[in-house]
Design goal:
The chain is of the alpha+beta class. Among the domains are: 31 residues; 74 residues, OB fold (Dihydrolipoamide Acetyltransferase, E2P) (Beta Barrel), CATH 2.40.50. It has 3 helices and 5 strands; from the N terminus they run αααβββββ. Strands 1-2-3-5-4 form a 5-stranded mixed beta barrel. β2 and β3 form a beta hairpin. It is elongated and about 185 Å long. The chain starts with a helix and ends with a strand.
Length: 214
Amino acid sequence: MADEDTTPETEEKAPDSIQEEVQTAASEEGAGDTSTVDTPEEAPAPAAAAPAAPAEPPEVLEPKERRARRRAAKKPAARGPLTPEQRDEERRARRAQKAKLRRAYRLRERTKAAEKRAAEPTPEPQHAPEHGPGRAKVRQGIVVSDKADKTIVVRVDVTRRHRRYGKIMRTSTKLHVHDERNDAGAGDTVRVVECRPMSRTKRWRLTDVLEKAK
């Protein structure tokens, strides 16, 4: 009887215990499983600003290298072989261009010179009054010989100072002078003027006898 009384109690308690175990297991699973819980994603931390790259120093070139680079930049592109006709045509074009530049340059220079002459006053002649276009030279000297007919020899003395050293330099020259009336004698001081060639050596003509010899 005792056995019969205990069996139904266990049978009645079994369903309740099973239900409690199921609920306990479900609650444990719900508490332990956190993968199903939606959690807000954390925003990524902003990356630190990258340090600025140091500026590269300018390239320093030697003068020779700079000139070589300039020449290389100006050098025309390589061309294929040219025919003689093409070379002649290029040569003619270069000559025409150079001639044009020369004409322009000379025209500019002539214009500048004309403007300069117009702006400047007329300079006074630097030469002696007897020198110049269309004017005969005049000299004064002493007669050293009157033996020939209508011809006298006149010595012209020149005294001047050396331009660099300042030394007094004395020189003399002899002129063959035409004397139409044989007025001058040896030792006379005379004035002569340049004229056309009258013989192989005569290029001067007597104009005045300034002082007679004593």
